[in-house]
Amino acid sequence: MGTIKHLACGLCERTFSPGQLHNLCSCGGSLFARYDFAAIRQTWNKGDLATDRRCDMWRYGPVLPADSQEAVTLTEGWTPQFTAWALGFELKAGNLWIKDDGRNPTDSFKARGMSTAVTLAKKLGARKLAVASAGNAAGALAAYSAAAGLQAYIFMPKDVPQGNFLECKAFGAHVTLVDGLISDCGKIVAERKEREGWFDVSTLKEPYRIEGKKTMGYEIAEQLGWTLPDAILYPCGGGVGLIGMWKAFAELAELGWIGSKRPKMIAVQAEGCQPIVDAFQREEPSSRMWPDAHTLASGLRVPKPLGDVHVLRAVRESGGTAIAVSDGEMMDGVELLGRNEGIFAAPEGGAAVAGLRRLLENGFLKRDEHILLYNTGSGLKYLEAFSARYRRQREGEQDKLGGLITPR
Ligand SMILES: Cc1ncc(COP(=O)(O)O)c(C=O)c1O
C-alpha cells in the first residue's frame, strides 16, 4: 500500500484526509489521491516488479490506496497487450498494439476501478454502495460488492444491454432501470443517498475508482518494457480511463521509471454523443450537455462527463485529439478486430479501431508511429447490438445502424 499524503480536489486543490469516506469537494471537484513518491522510491523499484509473480493490478500495491492483502479482488488487470499484425492499416510491422481489457472479471475495464473503490469503501465503513451507470460499471460494482459482502444499489438507463442487467441481478444487486440517461440516474442517487445510507461510487464521485483505472497506464508501460507508445486511442465516455492513464504517466515520471515522452491521448466518442469532441473543437475547458445522446456503445453515452475538464486537459497537454465515429464504423471496427485478431470487442473497442482509421486517413497519425488501441470490454455484453447487425446482414439489408439505443 502506498503512503497517501492526502486527497486533493482536482479543481481548487483543497486537501482532505484519506482516512474517511469522501465524495466531491464543496466546489464540485473530484478528489485525487496524492502519494509520497520520495518514500515509495526508497522501497520499490522496477526490478521488484520483474520478479513479482502477482498477475493482477495489485502488483502495483505500493502506488495503490490499500494493502493487497485487504483488497477486494477478483484478479482484475494485468490483461494481455499484444501486437496486432493483421488489421490491415499498413503500419510499420509490430507498431500497432492492442490492450484487451475485455478479459477482466465482469468482462470490462470497469473491474479495475471497482476493485479499489469497493476495497476502500468497505475499509472506511460503507455498507451500501450506489452507482449511476451506463452498464459495465454497474456489473462490476455488483460483482465486487458481492465479493465484499456489501449491498449494491444500481441505477441504469432502462435500455442498457440486457447482459448488464442480468449480471447485476445474478450478483444479487438491487437494480433500478430508469427512463432516462446516466445523468438522470445520477440525480436519483444524489437525491436519495443520504436518506438511504448509500455511499455514492459513481464515476469520479469518490477518489478511488481512478486509482484502479490508473493501473491501465502502469501496465501499458511495464508491458512495453517501460516505454510508452506515440499515441493511445481510448473510447471515451466519462473519461476515467483516460484520466487514470494520464495520472499513471505522471506518477511513473515521479518514480523515475519513464522519460519525458508522453503518448498523444486520443478520446474517441460516438457521433450521437460527443461532448468532449465538441468542447475540444470549440477550444473550451469544459463540455456542454450533449442533447439527445444516442449510440449503441452504451458506455459512450455520457452526455456531460463530470471529469470533462481533466479529460480535455490531458488530451490537450499530450498533443492528442478528440474524434467522433458513427455506430456503423464502430461495428465495422469490431468486425475487423474479430476477423483478423480473434478478439470479440465491445462496440467501444471498435470505436478505437474506427478512430485509428480516420486519423490515419486525415494524417493526424503517421504509419510509422507506435500506436496502442485500448479495447475496454467484451462484445459478449452487447448481444442485442450484434444480433441486430447479423440479422440485417442475413436478411440482405444494408447495414445501417441507427442506434439501438435511441434518442429519448
Ligand atoms: C466498454 C466501455 N468502454 C468505455 C467506456 C467509457 O469509459 P470512461 O467512463 O472511462 O470514458 C465504458 C463506460 O461505461 C464502457 O463500459
Sequence-ordered SSE layout with sheet pairings:
Layout: E1 4-9, E2 15-16, E3 31-35, H1 37-43, H2 46-50, E4 81-83, E5 96-100, H3 110-123, E6 128-132, H4 136-148, E7 151-157, H5 162-170, E8 174-178, H6 182-196, E9 199-200, H7 209-213, H8 215-223, E10 231-235, H9 240-255, E11 264-270, H10 275-282, H11 308-317, E12 321-325, H12 327-341, H13 347-361, E13 371-375, H14 383-394
Parallel strand pairs: 5-13, 6-7, 6-9, 7-8, 10-11, 10-13, 11-12
Antiparallel strand pairs: 1-2, 1-3, 4-5
This protein binds pyridoxal-5'-phosphate (PLP).
Pyridoxal-5'-phosphate is lined by residues 108, 110, 134-137, 203, 235-241, 299-300, 346, 348, 376-377.
Characterization of the model:
The longest helix is centred in the middle third of the chain and has 16 residues, at 240-255. α8 (215-223) crosses α9 (240-255). This protein has 408 residues and is an alpha/beta fold. The protein is globular. It is built from 14 helices and 13 strands. β6 (128-132), α4 and β7 (151-157) form a beta-alpha-beta unit. It has helices at residues 37-43, 46-50, 110-123, 136-148, 162-170, 182-196, 209-213, 215-223, 240-255, 275-282, 308-317, 327-341, 347-361, 383-394; strands at 4-9, 15-16, 31-35, 81-83, 96-100, 128-132, 151-157, 174-178, 199-200, 231-235, 264-270, 321-325, 371-375. Residues 399-408 have low confidence and may be disordered. The strands form 3 sheets. The chain has a 6-stranded mixed sheet with strand order 4-5-13-10-11-12, sandwiched between helices. A 4-stranded parallel sheet has the order 8-7-6-9, sandwiched between helices. It has a 3-stranded antiparallel sheet with strand order 2-1-3, with no helix packed on it. The termini are far apart. The protein binds pyridoxal-5'-phosphate. Pyridoxal-5'-phosphate is lined by residues 108, 110, 134-137, 203, 235-241, 299-300, 346, 348, 376-377.
